[in-house]
Amino acid sequence: MSGNNDAMLLAVDAPAFVRRAMQVEAAYEALLAVCRRERERLLEMPRMRLARYRALGRSRPSALAETCSPDELAYLEELHHQWQPRLRRAVEPARSPADLHRALAELSRSFRRFNRRWLAFVAELDLNVVNQLREGYNRYYLLEKECALRSARLAREGFVPLAPVRIDDLFDRFPLLRVPTSIGS
Asked: Whole-angstrom Cα distance, residue 35 to residue 145?
C-alpha cells in the first residue's frame, strides 16, 4: 500500500484528536506551500539580477567590493549560494566600475520590487482558516485525547497549545530581501 493510502486510512481510522492534529498540520503546510510557490515566482527576476551582477564582476572580484559595503556583499554572496541562479546566456565581464554600479542599481530595484510584491501578497493572505483550526485544536484536542485514552494525565502529556499564525510569523520564515545600496558611485 502506498504512503498516501496509509495516511488516508489512518485519517479515517484514527481517533478524533489525531484527525484534528493532522488537519491543523495539513492546513498550515498548505499555507506554507502557497507562500513558497509565490515567493519562488516573485524571486525569479531578483535571482537573474544577482547572477548578472556577479557575472559582471567575475573577472575582478575586488571590483564588487567597490560597489557596496562588505556586509551587503556578504549578504549577496549568501543569497547567491542559496539560490544558485543560472543565467540564460553568457555575460561579458564589466568594462568599468560604472557597469557594476548600474548592475547593482538594477539589482536593488529588483529587490525593492520583490519586497513590495511580497508584502502585498502576504497582507492579502487569509489566515482565518488556519487560525480557526488552531483554536479548535487548543480547545478540543485534550478533551478528545482524554476520551480516547481515558486518562487526563496521559492526555496532557506533551500537549503544547498552538499560537495563532500571524503575518510576522510568515515574514520570519520568508523574509523580505535586504536592499543593497551603492557606494562610491
From this structure: 32
Domain boundaries, the chain: 1-42+128-164, 45-125
Distances (CA, A) of 115 to 105, 119, 120, 148, 158: 15, 6, 8, 47, 39
Torsion angle defined by CA atoms of residues 61, 64, 69 and 73, in that order, rounded to the nearest 10 degrees: -70
Q: Rounded mean pLDDT of the chain?
A: 91
Instruction: Examine the pLDDT at 1 and tell me if it is beyond 50.
Output: no
Residues in the chain: 185
Q: Which residue has the cell 496509509?
A: 6
pLDDT higher than 70, residue 43: yes
Q: What is the pTM of this model?
A: 0.85
- Give the residue among 95, 108, 105 at the shortest CA–CA distance from 63: 95
Q: Is the sign of the CA dihedral 131, 136, 138, 141 positive or negative?
A: negative
**129 is written with which cell numbers?**
482558516
Residue 59 DSSP class: T
